[in-house]
Amino acid sequence: MSRILSVVLTFVLLLFFRLTPSVNATPVSITSGNLGGGTFDDLAFIIIGNGITLHGYESFPVTLGEELATGHLSERIPTFNLNGVVVLQPIFMNFELSFTPTPLLAMSPFAPGVAGSSVTEPFTMTGVLSGANFTPIDFVGQGTFTAGWFPREGPDFGRQFFSAQFVPEPPSIALLIFGAIGLLVGFKHFPRASRATFETNKKSF
Questions:
Q1: Cα–Cα distance for residue pair 62/38, rounded to 1 Å
Q2: C-alpha dihedral over 102, 103, 109, 111, to 10 degrees?
Q3: Phi, psi of 9 (to 5 degrees)
Q4: Full residue range of the structural domain in which residue 20 is found
Q5: Rounded distance between C-alpha atoms, residue 17 and residue 175, angstroms
Q6: Residues 122-162: pLDDT tens digits?
Q7: Alpha carbons 112 and 110: distance in angstroms, whole number
Q8: Disulfide engineering: 36 pairs with which of 29, 72, 115, 163, CB 3.0-4.6 Å?
């Protein structure tokens, strides 16, 4: 039983140290949150990672479609909220989303089949908080990206929209291997422990 317990504790410690980076560990992995906006709309975001929560908004450029069509969406945000505290210049938040180029968003909304259409695909993100007298914080994320045009019917015709939903990083191969080893060792010793318990209980009757 003690060997099984030691294996389980080892696996838990490995998981704990993976999810709890040291002070100097970079980058921070984003585990949840979302950001989104559109033409003539503010960019709204909440990004949550291990030890950091970023949220706020920023005005988007009119060239949104041109950026989305290249497969990159980058923004420099001068004012945001970090862990419940408003952060002002000279500290900036910079991030860039990368995804498969989307020519649809560079087309005219008057072209047949464009209005009301959208695309959904995976994305990755890199970002950094940096500024004068501030230790930079790098962060990375990934998830599902959706972008498109509003339908022809309605007041938003001719405008684009997008949203990015963050998901946790998949477990690393090393972590999966350690977990599998722990389970195999546990299953290997469990029957032996069960037989010993059965024999002890049988003698007590």
A1: 9
A2: -140
A3: -65, -40
A4: 2-170
A5: 11
A6: 999 999 999 988 899 999 999 999 999 999 998 999 999 99
A7: 6
A8: 163
Residue 57 belongs to some domain of the structure: yes
Task: Tell me, letter by letter, the H, E, C secondary structure of the chain.
Answer: CHHHHHHHHHHHHHHHHHHCCCCCCCCEEEEEEEEEEECCCEEEEEEEECCEEEEEEEECCCCHHHHHHHCEEEEEECCEEECCEEECCCCEEEEEEECCCCHHHHCCCCCCCCCCCEEEEEEEEEEEEEECCEEEEEEEEEEEEEEEECCCCCCCCCCEEEEEEEECCCCCHHHHHHHHHHHHHHHHHHHHHHHHHHHHHHHHC
Q: Is residue 201 part of a domain?
A: no
Q: Each residue of 55-81: pLDDT tens digit?
A: 998 876 656 777 888 898 888 898 899
21, 34 in Cβ contact below 8 A? no
Position 129 in a domain: yes
Tally the domains of the chain.
1
What is the reported pTM? Answer: 0.69
